[in-house]
Amino acid sequence: MLLVIGVYLVAGGSASGVAGGAKTLAKGAVPAAYKDLVQRWGNLCPAINPALLAAQLYQESGFNPRAQSPAAAQGIAQFIPGTWASHGIDGDGDGDRDVWDPADAIPSAATYDCTLASYVKDVPGDPTENMLASYNAGAYAVIRYQGVPPYEETRNYVRIITSLEKSFAAPQGRVDPSRQAAGAIAYAQKKLGTPYLWGGTGTAAQGGRFDCSGLTQAAYESVGITLPRVANDQYNAGPHPRRDELLPGDLVFFSDDLTNSRAIRHVGIYVGGGYMIDAPRTGAVIRFDSIDTPDYFGATRVTEDGAKALPTTV
Question: How far apart are CA 71 and CA 62, in angstroms?
């Protein structure tokens, strides 16, 4: 879990002051209530950035400030009580340290990141990967192995967070097209005219019917990419091209709150010319629809690494 580093708890001070940074968050990727906190504190030290911090928060809690795990990890940053007692800070200066308050928990997560990064700063390799590995295996293991330890769990943890980071960062240049996009579109085209079913994933028991995210999930499953079940998690399956950069196969998303990807309520597969294939609603069939509506949220270019990184429990 985030902010748990085995039996090792790093001691000492944290970095002071909040530095500026060039990396910015993708549109709506972080709920508006937390965006400024993540952007500001994600630039606390060179080992982290706002997109990386957002990826950690999403991986651990789905940005849920009331989240609590069976292991007693608490809040949006999933601190265990002992770690919070040692490393929680009063981020908003209101006189208390509240693990359930994102205004304290998000700055504490960033500060703890930087504390660990400073502890392993002399270890060869990528400082961010060494910091992330310290969460999973303990800083002592990173020092012992002089880099990310050869533990499958630890290496997977580092890979997941660094892959997720890409879906929270605003693209800096052209986003590469997906090689699986044509196959996903071909699958969706074969389903045109199929009646919508809320909760439908295309099983025989459901008569081969789908809801919106069930269709996109099945379309990409047909080309070997496993997406999560719901639309707002599918948004994090890769980087986010702008409207004028859309390519066939991109997932396109719709929401009544254009500042919060967790509020996304609909998804389709872009086919070009301003149109998508989607399963729109009860009483309708899978069809072509325009994407240029007031509730258009944004798009995701699905990547294998991005999809593999997505948690299944947020």
Answer: 17
- Smallest CA-to-CA distance from 207 within 198, 194, 219, 190 is with 194
| Residue-wise pLDDT tens digits, 10-27 | 333 333 334 334 578 998
pTM: 0.85
3-state secondary structure the chain: CCCCCCCCCCCCCCCCCCCCCCCCECCCCCCHHHHHHHHHHCCCCCCCCHHHHHHHHHHHHCCCCCCECCCCCECCCCECHHHHHHHCCCCCCCCCCCCCCHHHHHHHHHHHHHHHHHHCCCCCCCHHHHHHHHHHHCHHHHHHHCCCCCCHHHHHHHHHHHHHHHHHECCCCCCCCCCCHHHHHHHHHHCCCCEECCCCECCHHHCCCECHHHHHHHHHHCCCCCCCCCHHHHCCCCCCCCHHHCCCCCEEEEECCCCCHHHEEEEEEEEECCEEEECCCCCCECEEEECCCCCEEEEECCCHHHHHHCCCCC
